[in-house]
Amino acid sequence: MAQIRLSKLRHSYVPAPKGPEDYALKEIDVTWRDGGAYALLGPSGCGKSTLLNIISGLLTPSEGQVLFDDRDVTGLPPDQRNIAQVFQFPVIYDTMTVRQNLAFPLKNRGVDAATIEARVGEIAEMLEVTDMLDTKASNLGPDNKQKISMGRGLVRDDVNVVMFDEPLTVIDPHLKWKLRSKLKELHQKVRATMIYVTHDQTEALTFADEVVVMQDGEVVQIGTPVELFERPQHTFVGHFIGSPGMNVLPCELRGDHAVFEGHEVALEGPATGTGGTLKLGIRPEYVRLGETGLPAQLVKVSDVGRHFVLDAMVGNTRVKAVSETPPPPTGSPVNLSFRPEHTRVYRDGWIATEARP
């Protein structure tokens, strides 16, 4: 396995790029440690596939370096990078058995029969497909086909990184959680460096130890799932991660407080910087109904099973809150309080408050 480092990476599909708008990837510096489980998360068009193709060697970046264990592989073709890749659609041979499919990457590299047999048996046991080893792949369901595709990526023990490109897209929703759990379990057993590319926050947050969040060709935050939820560094991260996403509200600054719809709101700490467009960020989970707080009117209640998602109007602005207990009827006057330690100001999208120790 290997540590993967991207240094000052930029890429443009335009022959002579003139400005940032011509770059599909802005400058990116990321390090994925050896043996870690990582996710590359972002909406369609944010640059995930471009970055994946650069790491795999299918695309040469316009600028910067790709390093595997400090070895510059930027100019090497895919077959010299020792990468395994699992795609959206299972890449297996329907005319072969499960055993033959799992053995194929090893046979192709001249590995001896005894080692192949042992390794195939080990991976089959991890995937819980031992009883299917002599079954033709054409007779498998979509979830088991994708299991075999994953197994083909994991069967080699000499790969630098295993990359998963939206691997659960074609899997039925009721089977996705099983494969997500299995993949996490596989990583804990084989400890390979794994990079999981997805637009689905649930897949990213349940699989990865650390998530790289991308927007418009740049990395906006790298962190653990807890860090991304608890302290988003950018309003995009706050809005993209969470269900419902973070409230992003218009505000002004008055000393150490924000002013929202004419009301002073306490912040996690002092604001930094000057100028720019200011927004107040607070997750619905940290907005509470109470006897005191910002006067509002409840306009919508959604019962999602484990809690209630509330929409309330504070002046002309809609604020979402989460309540564990049944709220008053729609149309009722309510008071909203924001937990100060989770309330922060963003300047031009980026966090602009310092957390108190």
TrEMBL record:
<dbReference type="GO" id="GO:0016887">
    <property type="term" value="F:ATP hydrolysis activity"/>
</dbReference>
<dbReference type="InterPro" id="IPR015853">
    <property type="entry name" value="ABC_transpr_FbpC"/>
</dbReference>
<keyword id="KW-0472">Membrane</keyword>
<dbReference type="InterPro" id="IPR027417">
    <property type="entry name" value="P-loop_NTPase"/>
</dbReference>
<dbReference type="Pfam" id="PF17912">
    <property type="entry name" value="OB_MalK"/>
</dbReference>
<dbReference type="Pfam" id="PF00005">
    <property type="entry name" value="ABC_tran"/>
</dbReference>
<keyword id="KW-0547">Nucleotide-binding</keyword>
<dbReference type="InterPro" id="IPR040582">
    <property type="entry name" value="OB_MalK-like"/>
</dbReference>
<comment type="similarity">
    <text>Belongs to the ABC transporter superfamily.</text>
</comment>
<protein>
    <submittedName>
        <fullName>Sugar ABC transporter</fullName>
        <ecNumber>3.6.3.20</ecNumber>
    </submittedName>
</protein>
<dbReference type="InterPro" id="IPR003439">
    <property type="entry name" value="ABC_transporter-like_ATP-bd"/>
</dbReference>
<dbReference type="GO" id="GO:0055052">
    <property type="term" value="C:ATP-binding cassette (ABC) transporter complex, substrate-binding subunit-containing"/>
</dbReference>
<keyword id="KW-1003">Cell membrane</keyword>
<dbReference type="GO" id="GO:0005524">
    <property type="term" value="F:ATP binding"/>
</dbReference>
<dbReference type="InterPro" id="IPR003593">
    <property type="entry name" value="AAA+_ATPase"/>
</dbReference>
<dbReference type="InterPro" id="IPR008995">
    <property type="entry name" value="Mo/tungstate-bd_C_term_dom"/>
</dbReference>
<dbReference type="GO" id="GO:0015408">
    <property type="term" value="F:ABC-type ferric iron transporter activity"/>
</dbReference>
<keyword id="KW-0067">ATP-binding</keyword>
<keyword id="KW-0378">Hydrolase</keyword>
<dbReference type="InterPro" id="IPR047641">
    <property type="entry name" value="ABC_transpr_MalK/UgpC-like"/>
</dbReference>
<keyword id="KW-0813">Transport</keyword>
<feature type="domain" description="ABC transporter">
    <location>
        <begin position="4"/>
        <end position="241"/>
    </location>
</feature>
